[in-house]
Amino acid sequence: MFTELNSILNTSPDSFTRGEFILVSDRQSDASFLIHHFLSFYLRARCKVCFLGLAQSFCHYSAVSQRLGVSLTQAKEKGQLVFFEGLKECLSVLTPKENNVESEAMNFLRDPPVGLRSLYEFVRSSVIGSGSMEEGAEQWGPSVLLVDDLSVLLSLGVDVGAVLDFSHYCRALVCSQVQGNMVMLVRCNGEEDDDDDDDDDDDGDVGSDVLLKGLTHQCNLNLHVQGLPTGYCKDIHGQMEVCWKRRQSDAPHMQKNLFQYKVYDKGASFFARGTSSAVL
Amino acid sequence: MAAPVNSVGKTSADRLQVNCTSFQKKTRSKLISIPGTRPSVQNGQLLVSTGVTSLDYLLGGGLAVGTVLLIEEDRFDSYSRMILKYFLAEGVVCRHELFVATAQDNPDEILQELPAPILDDVAVPKPVEQPRLTGEPQDSLDAMKIAWRYQNLPKVQSALASSSRFGHYYDVSKTMEVEIRQAAKCHRFYLPDHITPSSAAHRVESYSALLKSLQEVIHREGFDLATPMSKTRNILRVGLHSLGSALWGDDLCCHDKPRHSHALTTFLYGLRALLRSSLSVAVVTLPSHLIQDRALMGNITRLCDNAIALESFKGSERETNPLYKDYHGLLYVRQVPHLNCLARQLPDHKDLAFKLKRKQFTIERLHLPPDLSETVSRVSRGEPVVVASACGSSASGTKNLDF
């Protein structure tokens, strides 16, 4: 949990708005440190977390969370965390053995046109299903769904429309029905206004851009991470744009703020442009 | 994750689950050490050497076990193939097992071209297996005549520790001797042996055949982290040559909009899953200059942990450019990993160049030669002209002043 990011977003583990869809996106950069922030944030807020870790192994997330002060293994044992390890499950589909049962949630690997319905069923069963099972279990807060990251699904051959459908179904389930929160990570390549003229060339990039635009439209809060426009710098790792979409007010307006950040071993620091400690 | 080496044994009980990919010592007295590896000073990862010491430095001390290094090939696949051979040769010297997969040349051809190591303490295998790579005192001291002092250092170290030196040097003008090479266990995957190139299955199944073969080798030889810790562990070095080329049945390099663009990325995802759960490390070379779709290269790079790209000057006009006369090509670091930690170890400089010398593959920061001003060079070149014209003319200007 990054304390500076909490003050930027005006949240804390004790009080945060419910029913929010937070989109974390990056372009030619790596925004996965924000996913670690949200994971430790919601575990500290005593929420019930469903984490789809598709990009890395469980021990990677566990080791990073240890540095941020949260133990994933303990959370799993207590039932607070449902962890879906994509790397482990995919092997049962990609290299099937006779006595091993294939993982249902990853059956889109065998047949990409099938879509992400089974993955959604997994999410649904972990968000809703376990509420009424144990009487003696601790009461957790609202359910939270974290996905790291959606672009891996695009690389594995899933259609953009299927991923957009999946995110819409999850949002309807988690944000509207259960009044929980949802955080998703999307990664893009290339420049933003690249395909105005050459529509036939960058077919692959159009996919992730379409996904990003569709999700930006659906989300409440967008954290967009990019590299510095002036080039590579070892002390400032990039810039982050925070974009709120307020629905409560009569005139819906978007509020944007731009920060620069640097990632440390145990956290990240955010500062206004030009006020990095390396510069001042 | 790539396996870390944690010296604190207190939390080993709850971290050593079946599905956890870390390994650490079970009791405080027993230290798991595999020859040819060392723990990273930054985050405790287990590292192996790539065979090129400057590349090790660039990657943060070495290649972490459980990760993939992607090398984007240069135009004629000369230097990327060289790095692959260094990687495999390092595996032979450290007594690791090898897995080589190719679609173009037979894996034996690559193995026969491995460079010869420059060491005196590489044990030539005798009928009785030596547990350590300590050299006999009468082994050739004449490998280095001038820098013989540096040869003595590993001998002193190897008397104390059980693991051999990290990172060796190779002589590319000689090939590795057959006895040393055959001492290492090598598994081969030659694509035409498994799938006939003209069959319909070739297009989509070559990668899955490779993945299944690799998983079978990992499971059979005991590199899985799930197998019990009692036996001695070793590292499997996987070398995959020219993935993504047309010979693997992929049309990534042929079309602008390939039909099965996700076949290679699915394979890389499965490869990451296999590596994270076993004691192996992979180097993949990819002819990226043939792939037109830059977004696809971005996806491929993100699915590998380390990624570098080579651009050689051979055949281009840069070969004769005086700026680049000291180097053979440029090296770009596309991606560095962050494994088990938040921060990445970013390189200091991004403009790097490499040079392949006979005994070393060096990667340096690209230095422009000093800018000599015009007057300095004119004087140095003009002196014979001054001598010739001094007898002819009376006064030839201020630059002919003698002091």
Provide the fold topology.
The complex is a heterodimer of chains A (280) and B (403).
Chain A: H1 3-9, E1 21-27, H2 32-44, E2 48-53, H3 58-67, H4 72-78, E3 81-85, H5 86-94, H6 117-127, E4 143-148, H7 150-155, H8 160-177, E5 181-188, H9 203-218, E6 221-226, E7 238-245, E8 254-263, E9 268-271
Parallel strand pairs in A: 1-5, 1-6, 2-3, 2-4, 4-5
Antiparallel strand pairs in A: 6-7, 7-8, 8-9
Helix pairs in contact in A: 6-8, 8-9
Chain B: H1 12-15, E1 37-39, E2 46-48, H2 53-58, E3 63-64, E4 68-72, H3 79-93, E5 97-102, H4 107-112, E6 115-117, H5 148-160, E7 170-175, H6 178-183, E8 186-190, H7 191-194, H8 202-221, E9 236-240, H9 262-276, E10 280-286, H10 294-303, E11 306-312, E12 329-335, E13 352-356, E14 361-365, H11 374-390
Parallel strand pairs in B: 4-10, 4-11, 5-8, 5-9, 9-10
Antiparallel strand pairs in B: 1-2, 2-3, 6-7, 11-12, 12-13, 13-14
Helix pairs in contact in B: 8-9
What report would you give on this structure?
Chain A contains 9 helices and 9 strands. Chain A has helices at residues 3-9, 32-44, 58-67, 72-78, 86-94, 117-127, 150-155, 160-177, 203-218, and strands at 21-27, 48-53, 81-85, 143-148, 181-188, 221-226, 238-245, 254-263, 268-271. Chain A has a 9-stranded mixed beta sheet with strand order 3-2-4-5-1-6-7-8-9, sandwiched between helices. Chain A starts with a helix and ends in a 9-residue tail after the last strand. The model of chain A is unreliable at 194-203 (pLDDT under 50). By secondary structure, chain B is of the alpha/beta class. In chain B, the strands form 3 sheets. Chain B has a 9-stranded mixed beta sheet with strand order 8-5-9-10-4-11-12-13-14, sandwiched between helices. In chain B, helix 8 runs parallel beside helix 9. Chains A and B meet through helix 2, helix 3, helix 5, helix 7 and helix 9 of A and helix 8, helix 9 and helix 10 of B.
